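sorry for the late reply, my laptop died twice this morning and i had to redo everyting from scratch. anyway the thing you sent over, i finally got around to it. pasting the sequence first so we're on the same page, its 384 residues, then the predicted structure underneath. double check i copied it right bc i was rushing
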Amino acid sequence: MTSTITWVGLDAHKKAINVAALFPNRTKPQEWLVENKPTAIKRLVKKVVQEAGGSEIRCCYEAGPCGYALQRQLESSCEMVCEVIAPALIPRKPGERIKTDRRDARKLAELLRAGLLTEVRAPTPAQEAVRDLCRAREDAKEDLMRGRHRLGKMLLRRGIAYAGGKRAWGVAHRQWLRSLKFDDANDRAAFGDYLLAIEQLEERIKTLEQQMAVAARGEGVREPVGWLRCFRGIDTVTALSLVAELHGIERFESPRALMAFVGLVPSEYSSSDRTRRGGITKAGNRHARRLLIEAAWHYRHPPRVGASLKERRKDQPAAVVAIAAKPSSACTAASVTWRLAGRNRRRLWLRPRVSWQDFCGRRCFITPHPSRPADRPRRRWAGG
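ok and here's the structure:
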């Protein structure tokens, strides 16, 4: 059966776009190069529409630094479907050793026609703006950590160490930093520059967090942000960042699909009758994965509902609060089981089976084993 669809592969870069089009009733792809400018893209659309002769047009390009601007330009110019493809999921031949932009564009068109590409969910401009705001705050936090490390290592190279307490960068630590004196003018200049950079970054983070608080009250994100804030370890910054990174948690068919999207499922390398599973894949959205892991660490503390958590759960649906309270109940059951073990702790090896579905409130259970397996090292014992 002859295809009546025009398939277009685009290898997009900052300055130019390599185009490969598979038109109906043609055996070879047509290839050309255009500039990555709005006027050139309009001419590209006009040419493809004329060559397609009224047939349906479907095009794609890899997700990358060019973002989703090209997709919006193409779909607004005419009735054209443009997909943004996940680069890590593009099939590759192990023996292929030649890579060029022309080949990449032709390969995208052929794989799109074969249905072997995985599309990336494109956010709306408003969702992308909120996501960029959250990532700007994350970048500022990383810069702040690096700035603090630079200052601390400079002092360490001069044999100066803070001994006033365990907590660094508190009020006492900052007073100690301001009290330091250096004989050399170059040392004073370097120390002052490092300290000034840290103070500026802290002000930037405060400004960004204030803007994030305003964005969290916006239309379309207010409700999911309020629901997520019912969980322990999740406040406005984490909740808004998760909503911005996932841009629609309802699009996932199951919690397992969500965990695969953020790379929190185990890797596997199985063959024949042998099953081998490894650590988590760490594939997908690393920003959302980091937020979920940091939030989960709060569940290692005793499950108490403080004043701030009560305030966050106020005026929220009862069903949401009940789901948010389930992991805490499971942690309470685990601690009670551990206390009841008493003197038999050395013979009770608790293997926690708490998945990220459990963190979302689906289920949480602990499987007790009567004895320590022989192949487990002693350091894996509970209480041993």
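The first strand starts at residue 5 and ends at 12.
thats about all i looked at so far, will dig more tmrw
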